[in-house]
Design goal:
α7 links the parallel β7 and β8. The protein has a single domain, classed as Zn peptidases (Aminopeptidase). It starts with a helix and ends in a 7-residue tail after the last helix. It is about 40% helix and about 20% strand. The longest helix is centred in the N-terminal third of the chain and has 30 residues. The chain has about 350 residues and is α/β, with parallel strands linked by helices. This is Zn-dependent exopeptidase M28. InterPro entries: M28_fam, Peptidase_M28. Pfam families: Peptidase_M28.
Length: about 350
Amino acid sequence: MNFKKIFIPIIIFVFIISLLLINSSVNGKSSDLALVSDVKYISQEIGPRPAGSENENKTAQYLKSKLNSYGVKTEVQSFKYYSMYSKGVKSSENVIGTINGTSPKQIIICADLDTVKDKNTGNYTEGANDDVTSIAVLIGLAKEYQHEKPYFTIKLIGFGAGEDPYTLPINASPRTSLNSEEYNKIMYIPYLIGARHYLLENQDSINNTVAVISLEAVGEGIPCFVSQDSFAENNQSFVNFLVFNARINGFNAEKIDFMTYEEPQGRDDPISHIYLPFSYANIPSTFLTCLENPNVNSSTHNNSEMPGYLTVNDNYENLVKNNGGEEGLEKQLDTILSLVKTSINNIDKFYAVKNISVT
């Protein structure tokens, strides 16, 4: 019997079946549209989410419910604050999910619960991209780690009232672990009140936090880790590591400066994100955003790179259209989810090799 003639067709058959199974698995993941369904529900069923509003609270409760459904221990941290543009005291909340790891050291991955007001129309945005796509990634991470124990403990946090400008916390925690300069810088950041409240309330966790990555408008374009923005120059070794780690794992990622966003009317808006208080506390931190054909040589970015950003055009219909359909959006979010998970799983290597340069 010619075993060679029999054996080779069997190998080819097994190889073809394997490819079909892999393809079926990939297609099944895309057709599930789990991440897209979260984006659609929050942006369309809940809608615009002004800081401190009922809709922001609905979003917080939705995130808490979804994290709980994947076995993530979740708490809601309520807080009160003053805003220059509002009468009286306002209330908001942070949603904090904890995935216990082998190590008590923790990584924070976070997103905004509220949405911005379009400066031209005066209306709050639906915020499908900024920042529901990021909330969907938080939910996706909870599902990913449902049956997988990470090395570092992971905090998945939705921060409230991040977009409300000129805010001050009420009954802010006194300084304990922060030095005077760090404490004052965090206290007087003009916005990001939810993130500021969380950090001031958890100063004892600063030395236990190895990294913070906040997610901002990740629903279309190439993933970009921010080197510096209007308020901070981030830990360059950390940003370089994240970009390097992404690239060696097959992701097309860039390192950018993001100082200002040029609105279609020509006005430049200063840019930062909810990682900022942690950066001021000297925790390796940055934010991840996505841009279409990013100009890596410019610190100002615009509507051609981030369509609809900070305007009422940031809605579900446009987000889906810009991705070529819901399947395209799910694929984009799957990519970001995989990238963030890869970053989480490899951050221990950052502490082993801190001097990486990226061009």
